[in-house]
Amino acid sequence: MSETLQVSDLSVRYGAAQALAEVSFEIPPNSALAVLGPNGAGKSTLARALSGLVPKAGGTVRFGDRDLTKLSPAKVRRAGLVHLPEGRGVFPGLTVLENLRMGLAVDKGRRAEGLDRAFTLFPVLGERRRQLAGTLSGGEQQMLSLARALMIEPKLVIADEMSLGLAPKLVDLIFESLGRARSAGVSVLLIEQFAGRALDFADQCLILQRGRTSWSGPADAAGEELLHRYLGEATAA
Ligand SMILES: Nc1ncnc2c1ncn2[C@@H]1O[C@H](COP(=O)(O)OP(=O)(O)OP(=O)(O)O)[C@@H](O)[C@H]1O
């Protein structure tokens, strides 16, 4: 079943510091939202708050007809929201196959199906199934992290700076992989410091500055002038 993520007036505090202030947006089924903003704007905080990793100081998070506001990370995950944190989050001492199995249900039939699906989406992982994850390239590790998340058939993936530190070719690969996930019906909340590719990928865009929404609208309306105004030279590329 398709569900809309509905975030209303979400606020997060770290002690006295307000990291997120009354942020609201929606992600309709099968669509992608790019969350942009300079360093420290609150992008990762937003991801952590949605997935239940940091407590909310105010606001609500609904997914379809479910209220996720107070749920634990495990329950948010079970509701279909999967968070890919900044950094790769794979187990370097385990093989590709072992990493993928960790993302899976115990049911044997579904397990085989899930692996088939992962290797169809990411053939390179199939070729490297016996290789230790720690010896994969950065891009391949990101792919593994995404493949593992997709094994549990999420409805929405929160991808936090997946392209961080990767060469442009590998960034292409990551966006291609996210695109495949989307074609399979998964919604995406994409956090990026660099705007260009994220906007090409997304339907909607939300720009954060110091924890507040400074602009939101259709991704194709976020022109260069606007990006320079909110993100500055360094991040508008
Ligand atoms: N655990 C924490 N305790 C205290 N302050 C924190 C904590 N995590 C983040 N912050 C602060 O909250 C603000 C938002 O941080 P956040 O990591 O969400 O920004 P970001 O937009 O993801 O930045 P970047 O692009 O640099 O990753 C920053 O000022 C940061 O220093």
Could you give a short description of this structure?
This protein is an alpha/beta fold. The chain has helices at residues 43-50, 73-78, 96-102, 108-121, 123-127, 138-151, 168-183, 195-201, 224-235, and strands at residues 5-14, 17-27, 32-36, 58-63, 66-67, 81-84, 156-160, 187-191, 204-209, 212-218.
Structure write-up:
- This protein is an alpha/beta fold.
- The chain has a single domain (5-235), classed as Rossmann fold (3-Layer(aba) Sandwich).
- The protein is 38% helix and 26% strand.
- It has helices at 43-50, 73-78, 96-102, 108-121, 123-127, 138-151, 168-183, 195-201, 224-235, and strands at residues 5-14, 17-27, 32-36, 58-63, 66-67, 81-84, 156-160, 187-191, 204-209, 212-218.
- It has a six-stranded mixed beta sheet with strand order 6-7-8-3-9-10, with helices on both faces.
- Strand 7, helix 7 (168-183) and strand 8 form a beta-alpha-beta unit.
- Helix 3 (96-102) runs parallel beside helix 6, helix 4 packs antiparallel against helix 6 and helix 6 runs parallel beside helix 7.
- 39% of the residues are buried.
- The mean pLDDT is 88.
- The structure holds adenosine-5'-triphosphate.
- The site of adenosine-5'-triphosphate (ATP) has 12 residues, from strand 2 and helix 1.
- This is Amino acid/amide ABC transporter ATP-binding protein 2, HAAT family.
- GO terms for molecular function: ATP binding; ATP hydrolysis activity; branched-chain amino acid transmembrane transporter activity.
- InterPro entries: AAA+_ATPase (IPR003593), ABC_transporter-like_ATP-bd (IPR003439), ABC_transporter-like_CS (IPR017871), BCAA_Transport_ATP-bd_LivF (IPR052156), P-loop_NTPase (IPR027417).
- Residues 5-235 form the ABC transporter domain.
- Keywords: Amino-acid transport, ATP-binding, Nucleotide-binding, Transport.
